[in-house]
Design brief:
Strand content: 15-25%
CATH class of the largest domain: Alpha Beta
Bound molecules: flavin-adenine dinucleotide
Largest sheet: 8 strands, mixed
CATH superfamily of the largest domain: FAD/NAD(P)-binding domain
CATH topology of the largest domain: FAD/NAD(P)-binding domain
Number of strands: 22
Shape: globular
Helix content: 25-40%
Length: 500
């Protein structure tokens, strides 16, 4: 038996962003909290650790941003241009990106609570900064932010979860590593009564009045990927932690919870062709290759297969990884010329990159081991299709192609200025969209639509927010909003039970 305490008001399963927010909110409400983490301590923080730490939230202007970054200097303020991103814009992006399927109550809760939750995270020790490197282009001496995403955590994902762990320890949350929740225990009335744990030394049960499931999606479970996402998905590379295998979802379904959301879909991106099978905490998210709107993307036959400029990167990248898995050998190649090389994101400059450079397109194709005539033909036809207009990467500039399929709808520059560079990518899965059905108060519903007393869920355990696609920065935001709500609600539920 484990020698630790055996009873807690709230047990939180999973120590990513959502679980940490749940634990902090439950402590804030006066509950005793146990945070269970399946991974060993050196892998704590789940996928949240791997992120760039960028969160999407609604704001009315610089005044709101200043509540998060009060030390913005006048000089900084005069060097930036940030358009407001209000609740209506956030909602219309969510609707458009999810093919109008996002569950409105959950989605609006996330949006309306987004700025207050950012402020709450700051009060818990997270420090915010402007996302200059990833979300702004310099235009006419000003950094112009684009795509509704302007703020990231200082220190990115590691900075975000590091601050939350520090606070959790300070606030008296008990954290147990290498401790996997294996089963939820309910009493005769179906109320949560405990959690079964496989600890480092043995298995044991913890008594609790309430459990918050924040154990991530099933992206690291090859068999579930194949079962729900379809053929070849077992071959995808996993961008983050290897510990997110669907445990939270499975445990809840076993006691009658309702599956919800887009089970056959996921967030997946262009990821380095030779990246390891799952995330490397030293490299973090830098195997991603997100500058494709500045060039063209071809398969091994040298053929284009998507509109690289359909929208800002934030609104296409999560879907485009999925398109790569159906290409021959699950491979794609991003091709740029020297005109845009200086605009490529930082991740193109890491040492661990699958890259070739050449002074002709034919030589580049040979080095990348892709069809030489195919690539030469594609580039020839693409260049001939580029329409006149001013190129501006900070706006949807409408500089497009005409007469090639698929089109490139924005930022279409001819590929004609050597040296040419090419980057090999494959599909990297980020997280899955299917999960549990919750109410806006984060209560898990059963298959009959009733809440399971004492059971809450947050983060990627939740289904119903994202369908087909995803606007960048919403995963951490949804996790923080529903993490905070679930912790507060779980604590309130236990307190109400006690006072009955
Ligand atoms: C490379 C990368 C970059 C990303 N960048 C961004 C970004 O910039 N902005 C953004 O919004 N989103 C980003 N995301 C998505 C983001 O990571 C997720 O939306 C978010 O982190 C999910 O948080 P979570 O708390 O639900 O899950 P996680 O952070 O994955 O935490 C789940 C935790 O549960 C633990 N666990 C699993 N099973 C059990 C069990 N049985 N018992 C106990 N513990 C268990 C896991 O070990 C893990 O620690 C990125 C993801 C990746 C992989």
């Amino acid at each position: 038996m484990n020698g630790g305490k055996k009873r807690f008001d709230v047990v939180v399963v999973g120590s990513g962003n959502a679980g940490l927010c749940a634990a902090l909110a439950a402590r804030e409400a006066g509950a005793s909290v146990l945070l269970l983490e399946k991974a060993p301590e050196e892998w704590r923080g789940g996928n949240s650790f791997f992120t760039g730490g960028a969160l999407r939230f609604a704001f009315r202007g610089l005044e709101d941003i200043k509540t998060l970054i009060p030390d913005l200097s006048d000089e900084e303020v005069s060097s930036i241009q940030i358009e407001p991103y209000d609740e209506d814009q956030f909602y219309s992006d969510m609707l458009r990106i999810t093919d109008y399927l996002t569950e409105p109550d959950l989605c609006l809760t996330m949006i309306r609570r987004s700025l207050p939750t950012m402020q709450w995270l700051r009060s818990k020790g997270v420090r915010w900064t402007l996302a200059f490197g990833r979300q702004a282009f310099r235009v006419n001496e000003k950094f112009r932010f684009w795509g509704g995403l302007v703020v990231e955590a200082v220190g990115a994902g590691p900075g975000l979860v590091g601050a939350l762990f520090d606070r959790a320890v300070k606030d008296g949350v008990e954290i147990r590593y290498a401790s996997k929740a294996t089963r939820l225990l309910a009493d005769g009335d179906g109320k949560i009564a405990g959690v079964e744990v496989r600890g480092p030394a043995s298995s044991y049960q913890v008594e609790t009045g309430s459990a918050v499931l924040a154990a991530g999606g099933f992206e690291a479970n090859a068999e579930w990927r194949c079962r729900y996402l379809g053929p070849d998905w077992e071959l995808a590379k996993v961008r983050g932690t290897l510990y997110n295998t669907g445990d939270g979802i499975r445990m809840a379904l076993e006691i009658g919870a309702q599956p919800f959301g887009h089970w056959s879909s996921c967030h997946a991106v262009a990821w380095d062709l030779n990246a390891p099978p799952h995330g490397d905490r030293r490299i973090g998210d830098l195997f991603q290759k997100h500058s494709y709107p500045l060039g063209i993307v071809v398969n091994i036959k040298g053929e284009r297969f998507l509109d690289e400029g359909a929208d800002f990167r934030n609104y296409t990248y999560a879907e485009y990884g999925r398109r790569i898995i159906s290409q021959p050998h699950r491979a794609a190649f991003q091709i740029f010329d020297s005109k845009v090389i200086s605009l490529l994101r930082e991740e193109y400059r890491i040492r661990e990159v699958t890259k070739a450079e050449a002074s002709t397109i034919e030589e580049l194709a040979k080095k990348l081991e892709i069809d030489v005539e195919g690539l030469a033909r594609t580039v020839r036809e693409f260049n001939a299709a580029v329409q006149p207009g001013a190129f501006n990467p900070a706006i949807l500039d409408g500089k497009r192609t005409e007469g090639v399929l698929p089109p490139k709808s924005n930022w279409a520059l001819p590929i004609d200025t050597p040296p040419y560079v090419g980057y090999g990518v494959t599909t990297g899965i980020t997280f899955t969209f299917g999960g549990l059905r919750i109410t806006p108060r984060a209560e898990v519903l059963d298959t009959e639509g009733r809440s399971i007393p004492g059971l809450y869920a947050a983060g990627e355990n939740v289904g119903g927010l994202f369908y087909y696609n995803y606007p960048g920065g919403s995963g951490l935001m949804a996790g923080a909003v529903f993490g905070r709500i679930s912790g507060a609600e779980a604590a309130a539920y236990v307190s109400a039970q006690r006072n009955r």
